Amino acid sequence: MNQERNFTQHRGTTVYEHSIGVAYTSYFIAKHMPFSFREASLVKGALLHDYFLYDWHEKDDSHKWHGFCHPRIAMNKANADYGINPVEANIIHRHMFPLTPIPPKYKESYLVSIMDKVCAIGEMLNIRYLSKSMRIELGLD
Predict the structure, then answer these.
(1) Which end of the chain is more exposed for a tag (fewer CB within 10 A), N or C?
(2) How many CA atoms within 13 Å lie on the side-chain side of 134?
(3) Do the Cβ atoms of 52 and 79 come closer than 8 Å?
(4) Rounded distance, CA 116 to CA 46, Å?
(5) Average pLDDT value over all residues in the chain
(6) Is domain 2-137 classified as CATH 1.10.3210?
(7) What does the domain layout of the chain look like in residue ranges?
């Protein structure tokens, strides 16, 4: 995952920081819901949801359809490097719903998909969702 520090996600946010933010906010929301989540899979899937390891901002034909293709690429890379279970695979593969038309299968997948969009909007508006102390502890500042 350290390689994600080398790629920008939205504005000045790295893919690494974005992934941490999606995992943190997904876990936070899950802990405050009246039903349970598979927390380990939720966090692992959220951390790896954008594990595609390239700069999608580069003008390159292989990145032309990034929004549609990167979930599958990230899922395959995550499985090869970390080994993922079916819930984690679904979180990663379906996080771009509804841009990609097949909906998520698990509540964990829906939550990560929603928090991915919430975090992306925050990043575009330059809103920091991690505290200064958390950013320092994670090596983001």
Answers:
(1) C
(2) 9
(3) no
(4) 8
(5) 87
(6) yes
(7) 2-137
